[in-house]
Design goal:
The structure holds 2 protein chains of 2 kinds. In chain A, 30% of the residues lie in helices and 34% in strands. By secondary structure, chain A is α+β, with helices and mostly antiparallel strands. Chain A has one domain: mini-chromosome maintenance (MCM) complex, domain 2 (Sandwich). A 4-stranded antiparallel beta sheet of chain A has the order 2-1-7-6. In chain A, strands 3-4-5 form a 3-stranded antiparallel beta sheet. Chain B is mainly alpha-helical. Chain B is built from 6 helices and no strands. Chain B has a single domain, classed as Arp2/3 complex 21 kDa subunit ARPC3. Classes of the chains: A alpha+beta, B mainly alpha.
């Protein structure tokens, strides 16, 4: 029963290859981020610079509260009243593309790039 | 036939105990969605012992029951997506002959996480959740391998035959 079969190996290699590609791609394009974008339910609530020191409180419609702290170029969820506290456990983020996600409150905090290139690109596409 | 009902009840109880044990373990990798997937052990055993219909029933029942017992509606939705996604793939892989129990279990672990990522994507509507994909893929394989190995050993002692159920 505990014998490996041919397709097992192929499956493991395929998944490992995909994961490695994703990781490589991440490391190649990952830079220190400059600001965090806070979104709730897909809509942007606010954009904050990582260079500043701040404590921000986000309250969702059903009363859920998240406290986001920004310090030393990193952002982290200080406290939250969601049941699992996963967003607090996710720790500090500061590199481009990293994010903190609080699923119960549908809150996403994401680090974006240094220059305004991305914002420009979005603006260009919209015009 | 009647005994099978009793055995299915045992399997469901087993799955619920595993879910409970899992909810007790403060096991956290730093990434949302990474879990041991212990309950999948019961599903895997049922899948190999009885078949997909029984295993599917067991899977859905345990998601709802453990969700109401240890979680909330949100948890149910989240874990149902993972459970269904992983279950479909496990059935498919089991049917394709060249996969062993570990392969099936690993595929289940990986696709469980893919299903949860998809839910996270639809809930938050942010592509950022994909950031965790490589870690979740690796974690799904590791936990799937572990569960597969355990299931293989358990099956040795359970026996594949249904002699005791006649």
């Amino acid at each position: 029963m505990l014998k490996w079969k041919k397709n097992d190996i192929y499956f493991v290699m395929a998944v490992a290859a995909i994961a490695l590609c994703l990781i490589c791609q991440r490391f190649m394009f990952s830079k220190e981020g400059a600001r965090v974008v806070v979104q709730r339910d897909g809509k942007t609530v606010g954009t904050y610079s990582l260079a500043e020191e701040e404590r921000l409180v986000f309250t969702s419609e059903d009363g859920g509260k998240n406290v986001l702290a920004i310090r030393d170029g990193k952002a982290y969820m200080e406290t939250a009243d969601c049941p699992d506290k996963l967003c607090v456990k996710q720790g500090a983020i500061g590199r481009e593309g990293e994010s903190i996600i609080c699923l119960p409150h549908k809150l996403v905090i994401q680090v974006t790039g240094g220059e305004d290139r991305e914002a420009d690109a979005v603006a260009m596409l919209q015009n | 036939m009647k005994k099978k009902t009793a055995y299915m009840g045992l399997f469901l109880a087993f799955a619920l105990i595993l879910s409970y044990v899992e909810s007790l373990i403060p096991f956290y990798f730093g990434v949302p969605g990474v879990k041991l997937g212990l309950a999948n052990l019961a599903v895997l055993l049922a899948l190999y012992r009885y078949g997909w219909k029984e295993a599917l029933m067991l899977n859905i029942m345990r998601v709802f029951l453990s969700g109401f017992l240890f979680g909330n509606l949100f948890v149910i939705m989240y874990s149902l997506a993972g459970a269904v996604c992983s279950f479909l793939v496990m059935c498919l892989f089991k049917r394709m002959k060249n996969f062993s129990l570990m392969g099936v279990s690993m595929a289940g672990g990986v696709f469980h996480n893919i299903g949860q990522i998809l839910v996270a994507y639809f809930v938050t509507k942010t592509a950022g959740v994909v950031f965790y994909l490589p870690i979740l893929l690796g974690a799904g394989m590791a936990t799937g391998l572990m569960i597969g190995l355990i299931a293989g050993n358990v099956m040795k002692y359970l026996g594949k035959g249904k002699a005791e159920e006649r």
